[in-house]
Write a structure and sequence with these properties.
Layout: H1 2-7, H2 9-12, H3 15-29, H4 54-57, H5 67-70, E1 79-82, H6 89-96, E2 102-105, H7 114-118, E3 121-125, H8 138-149, E4 154-159, H9 169-173, E5 176-179, H10 184-198
Length: 199
């Protein structure tokens, strides 16, 4: 090694040799630092349909939950009111309560019309309806005819009148009767009971 130094002394002290020596000295004196590569950052601007922010999962006070999910019969039960008062408030209350397939007609043109065929539960007012089919006893005759033609359908008669026919066959044939001014809860209770029987 000594002989090599003697023969290469000029080269070692030349500018090139000094540069190599300084570079080697820098590596010896300082510990080698590893170069850290920054990891790539990915930004996902899409929101998964399966992930809902927690604040949206919180139940809000005063807002009804999905009523159709509470009672599976609500979306399948078809309710028809036949009443010459087409603004009968119980109908809108039922729709608000989730019974979306609730309809009201002033009268019907035939016993086998679509609305009667399509309905599971029929509420028939005993005054002012049945005239289109010529029933002299109006809603009582209509209710009796519908129940005889469709025994599987639930037929309920109601009336605002407190006096009247007490012995009509319809009163013994239909499924139920109640006063027109009954609480909306009474109508809902009957629908819940009969929709379970139908479903």
């Amino acid at each position: 090694m000594f002989t090599w130094l003697q023969t290469n002394v000029e080269w070692i002290f030349s500018g090139f040799g000094v540069a190599i020596a300084i570079t080697l000295w820098g590596f010896v004196k300082k510990p080698r630092q590893e170069k850290i590569e920054p990891s790539p950052i990915t930004i996902n601007n899409t929101i998964s349909n399966n992930v809902t922010p927690e604040k949206n999962n919180e139940k809000k006070i005063g807002q009804p939950e999905n009523l159709e999910n509470e009672n599976p019969f609500k979306k399948n039960t078809r309710i028809l009111f036949i009443d010459d008062d087409i603004k009968f408030q119980v109908v809108s209350i039922l729709k608000t309560a989730g019974w979306k397939n609730t309809k009201i007609l002033k009268d019907i043109p035939a016993l086998d019309c679509f609305d009667v065929n399509d309905s599971n539960i029929l509420f028939i007012d005993i005054q002012g309806v049945g005239k289109a089919l010529g029933f002299s006893d109006e809603g009582l005759g209509l209710a009796l005819a519908i129940k005889k033609k469709y025994p599987m359908k639930k037929v309920i008669i109601y009336s605002a009148q407190t006096t009247g026919e007490r012995f009509h066959q319809a009163l013994r044939t239909v499924d139920y009767s109640l006063p027109k001014n009954s609480e909306p809860y009474e109508f809902i209770r009957l629908i819940e009971e009969y929709s379970c029987e139908i479903g």
